[in-house]
Amino acid sequence: MGNIVFIAGTRPELIKLWPISWIMKNQGLDHSFILTGQHCIKGSLLCPLAQILDSITYEALPTLSLSALVEKVKRRDPKVVIVQGDTNSAVFGGVAAKLNMSCLLHVEAGLRSGDVYFPWPEEINRVALSRISNYHYAPSSAARLNLINEGIQAEKILVTGNTVFDAVEMVRKDKADNLGCPVFGGLNKRILVTCHRRENWGRSAINIMAALYRLSLNPKVRIEIIDHHHNAVALLARQSQFFSPRINVVFPKTYSDFIESITFSDLIITDSGGVQEEAFYLGRPLIILRNITERSEYLQDGASILVGVDEELIVSKSIELLFGKSRASIPVGRAKFVTGASAAIVSHITSAQL
Asked: Coiled-coil segments, which residues (predicted)?
C-alpha cells in the first residue's frame, strides 16, 4: 500500500477523520496529514484530540490556498488522498489530489439538502467532490441513493455510517469516569447554543437572539452560547438590550468538553450539521436553526425540530421540548448500530489495495 495523506482544514474535519487515523496508526499503515489553515485548530483540540497532532506527521499551511496545497500534495506524491465532508478545504484537497493523479476518497459523501444555495457553499462543494472522487463513503443509505441518482456507480459507494459517532464514543470512553449518565429533571433546564452559519447573520441573528432572550426570562432556564469566529448571535448576546444573567457566552471548548456539555444539556439549539449528528447520537432534543437539512433522518422521532429563524417558533418549540409532557426521552447511544464507520473505511482501503 502506498502512502496515504489526509487533508483537513477545520475542527469538524479533523474530529471526523481522527478515528480513521487512529485505526490506521494501530495497524501500522503509513499516513500523514496536511492542515490547510482554513481554521485555526491546533489550540482548540487539546485532550484527548491533541494526541493525534502529537503522534502523527503533518504539515500546516498558514492559510487556505489552492496553489500552496497543490504544491504540498505534489511534493508528498501520495497514492491515496482522503478528504471529509463539504468544506472548502475538502474541495481544494480533492482538486489537489486529482491534479496529482492520486486516488481520492471522500468521507461523508452523498449528503444533499436539495438546494444548491443552502447551505452555501457546502452544497456546491459536496456535489463537486462527488464528481471527482474515486470512492465515496456514505454515512447512510439515503446518502448512497443520492449518489446513485446522480450517476455515481454503485460499486464505488460504500455505506459506512458516520465517523463522528466513533469520535464521540472514543471521547466518552476516555472520560467515562467523569461523564457518567445524564441526569435530568432538576430545577434548571440547560440549553446549549451554537450558531455560526452565514445564513444566520444580520436580521436572522437578531431573531435568534431575541428568542434566546425570551427563553432566558424563565428562571428555570440556563443558556450557554458557544462563541465562534463567525458567531453573530454571541456578539448580540453581549449587547445591553439582550443582557440576561441566565445567558452565558463561553469560548470554544475542547472536543471532549463540548461532548460533555451536550451530554448534560436538556436542549441543543444549533445551525451546525455536525452538532445535529452529535446531539442525535447522544440522545439530546434538538432545535435546528435552518429551513432545510441534509440530515433529514434525524427528524423522524420528533426530538429534532426544524424551525428556521422564526422567533416565535424557536421559543414555542424550545418550550415544548424542554417542558412538554411528551418530551422525547432517548437513551445515550441510541445510534450505536451505526458506529464502526472508521473501521469499515480502513478495511475497504486495505482490502481494495488502493
From this structure: none
Any idea where the domains of the chain sit in the sequence? 4-174+338-351, 182-331
Residue 183 confidence (pLDDT) = 46
For the question of residue 196 being annotated catalytic, the response is yes
182-331 shares the fold of 4-174+338-351: yes
pTM of the model: 0.89
Bridge partners for 249 per DSSP: 225
Instruction: Answer whether CATH 3.40.50.2000 is correct for domain 182-331.
Output: yes
| Class level of CATH domain 4-174+338-351 | alpha beta
As a whole number of angstroms, the distance between CA 48 and CA 260 comes to 13
Pick out the chain residues at pLDDT < 70.
1-2, 40-58, 175-187, 229-230, 325-338
Query: Rounded CA gap, 318 and 221, in Å?
Result: 11
- Which of 39, 106, 196, 228 is labelled catalytic? 196
Q: What is the CA radius of gyration of the chain?
A: 20
Task: Give the position of cell 433546564.
Answer: 189
> Looking at residue 2, what is its pLDDT?
63
CA atoms of 266 and 268, how far apart (whole Å): 7
Phi-psi region of 78 (alpha: psi -120 to 50; beta: other; left: phi over 0): beta
Reference 40, options 67, 64, 5, 70; nearest CA is 64
Look at residues 10, 144, 31, 27 and name the one whose alpha carbon lies nearest to residue 84.
10
Q: What is the pLDDT of residues 28-42, one digit of tens each?
A: 999 999 999 887 655
Please tell me the distance from the alpha carbon of residue 212 to that of residue 223, in angstroms, as a whole number.
8
